[in-house]
């Protein structure tokens, strides 16, 4: 191969690599979820306790609000955190755990994966709602609710999650 052809090949590979990296950066910036604000509703002295781990998006914020509005007048302590705070959650201390997350780059966020792997004994009190473009991506061996992030469906998915919470918070 001549020197000229080698230079062209190297330039071509650099351009392709740059385009791929630019696309990946754009994709990550466009589709990565915002951080969710942490806050608490009611007192920690209540016997029933619920934690909602979520990501920041209009869709997930609406579902979180619907769940909170449903339970805020009951004697239930509610803690809302970003999914990155799951490492601090001890499932023994909660009656129910709701995780709302987006399937990113063909997998769940690392914090969700690590939490679910370390809490297998508590799956009976964990409700996972996974959103994705196709609406059906989820972790293997996890009984998750799946769907698309469509604001028109917030009531539908909120109701599904609240129905799953009922036996855990009665």
Topology of helices and strands:
Elements: H1 3-31, E1 39-41, E2 48-54, H2 58-71, E3 76-82, E4 96-102, H3 110-118, E5 126-131, E6 144-147, H4 154-169
Parallel strand pairs: 2-3, 2-4, 4-5, 5-6
Antiparallel strand pairs: 1-3
Question: How does this structure look, described?
Answer:
The protein is built from four helices and six strands. With 170 residues, it is α/β, with parallel strands linked by helices. The protein folds into two domains: 1-31; 39-169, 3-Layer(aba) Sandwich (Rossmann fold), CATH 3.40.50.360. It has a six-stranded mixed sheet, with helices on one face. Helix 2 crosses helix 4. The radius of gyration is 20 Å and the shape is elongated. It starts with a helix and ends with a helix.
Q: Please tally the β strands and state the result.
A: 6
The helix/strand series, from N terminus to C terminus, equals: HEEHEEHEEH
CATH class category of the largest domain? Alpha Beta
Distance between the termini: 75 Å
Q: Tell me the count of domains.
A: 2
Q: How are strands sequenced across the largest beta sheet?
A: 1-3-2-4-5-6
Shape: elongated
Question: Class by helix and strand content?
Answer: alpha/beta
**What share of residues are in beta strands?**
15-25%
CATH architecture of the largest domain: 3-Layer(aba) Sandwich
